[in-house]
Amino acid sequence: MNKFISLTLRIWRQKRPNEKGQFETYPAKDISTDISILEMLDVINEQLTLEGKDPIAFDHDCREGICGMCGAVVNGHPHGSEKGTTLCQLHMRHFSDGDTIVIEPWRSRAFPIIKDLAVDRSALDRIIQAGGYISVNTGGAPDANAIPIAQEAADKAMDAAACIGCGACVAACPNASAMLFSGAKISHLALLPQGKPEAAKRAIHMLMAMDALGFGNCSNERECEVQCPKEISIVNIARMNREFLKASFFSSEK
Amino acid sequence: MSWLIQTLWSSIGKKLMMAVTGLCFCIFLVGHLAGNLTIYAGKDAFDAYAEGLHALGPLLTLIELGLLIFAIIHITTGLTLFYQNLRARPTRNKVTKRGGGRTIASATMPYTGIILLMFVVMHLINFSFVDKSETTIAQIVSQKFENPIYVLIYVAAMIIVAFHVRHGFWSAFQTLGANHPKYMTTLMALSIILGLVVGFGFGMLPLYISLFS
Ligand code: FES
Q1: Residue B158 has pLDDT above 90, yes or no
Q2: Mean pLDDT over residues A29-35, rounded?
């Protein structure tokens, strides 16, 4: 059954970085409840283009909740208020006819706005570059079970590796901290034998990179884990703390 | 040594300092409360407790010195974190909703902390740095709490302490990396219980003193 609703959209418009932005109001008429919020923006953008106006810029790619490219704050919640959902998977059936939806970009010193709802999240890449990898020689794919890994470790590592790097944790954090992202990345590798050799170096270097990028400090508000579209737990932040303190005090790494 | 400074002044390092000093303050609060409960046993018991405490001599001075150093660390680090966290988000969203992680206690940590600092200064002026040559501490205390304003300030401060402890206690364990599926629910509950014990334990005292002594 196809249902249609009409909404009022309040969307942050900003022409370029460092320029003053403002909210613009757009009526969204006869929106199918089967489409996602991004598809609704597509509809609005078509109209804006026909009217000769600048379409709303927003990031997206897979539109199936796995790439981490999309993201905006919808009515005060990163990726909207649905649990474990990315923006591209937020369907209009969760809204009612006549609703006003406020859509804003991620806000953080470390994520400068590029245009409208699109922000520059390359700070997260800087953190990965600092140590979020393992060093192995390339070559043929290794045998699947050549390294025995306990099921429990594999499961925990997979839970952490579910992070799609969308930056919602930074947007959700009252302190704009990237601890859940960094914690997930550090945990994912620290839990697996392949990640162990570089664990100490990784923990220190990734934390130093994170601190230098202008993110805030974690104060255990737990907003990140509630808003994370992949429902990554702050257990990973605790593990990161352990990894960092262990590396700093007990390894020769600096 | 530069590695030590780098470690302690990193984001996790600063949190580590907050956690360790904060936990020590929790232990201090419990000790302080246990001592203060002698008030219920009457003025003599309370004065005897105070005397016993001062009889510790250099040990007491050492503890006081330790508390002072920890307070300086806790305050300077806390204010630095507060400033850095404000800086990390120069523009705020127009609409911000809680997802359910944040509590009143966690959201107000810097503010309750600053209020508590002012309270501690006042508290020390009231009861620590006073001339006790002619009177006993029990007399000073009951005199002070004849004034309802003081009762009000003290009770309010203890409610604030309760909130600060309620987030601080479990948070310290999380910061130290002690998040474990078997213990985390207990720690969370303990955090609330400790907040209540400290809040009610200390908070009832000014009321009791002003009403019954
Ligand atoms: S567009 Fe890929 S996760 Fe939303």
Answers
A1: yes
A2: 94
Enumerate the domain spans of chain B. Answer: 13-87+107-212
CA A250 and chain centroid, separation: 32
Q: Is the CB of A62 under 6 A from ligand 1?
A: yes
Out of A2-6, A237-241, B167-171, pick the least confident: A2-6
pLDDT for A97: 94
Which atom of ligand 1 is the closest one to the Cα of A229? Answer: 3
Rounded CA separation A119/A121 (Å): 6
**From A119-128, A214-223, B11-20, B88-97, the region with the lowest mean pLDDT:** B88-97
Residue A38 CA to ligand 1 center (angstroms) comes to 10
Ligand 1 pocket residue status of A69, Cβ below 6 Å = yes
Counting from 1 in the atom list of ligand 1, the atom nearest the Cα of A66 is: 3
Task: Nearest chain B residue to A223 by CA: give it.
Answer: B101
Q: Assign domain A4-115 to a CATH class.
A: alpha beta
Cβ of A79 closer than 6 Å to ligand 1, yes or no, is: no
pLDDT digits (tens, 9 = 90+) for A98-113: 999 999 999 999 999 9
User: 3-class SS at A252?
Assistant: coil
CA end-to-end span of chain B, whole Å?
55
**In the CATH scheme, what architecture does the domain A121-250 have?**
Orthogonal Bundle (1.10)
Whole-number Å distance between alpha carbons of A210 and A42: 34
pLDDT of residue B212: 79
Question: Which residue of chain B comes nearest to A216, CA vs CA?
Answer: B85
Looking at residue A1, its pLDDT comes to 59
**d(Cα A80, Cα B184) in Å, to the nearest integer?**
28
- Report the C-alpha gap between B100 and A148 in whole angstroms: 39
Query: What CATH number labels B13-87+107-212?
Result: 1.20.1300.10
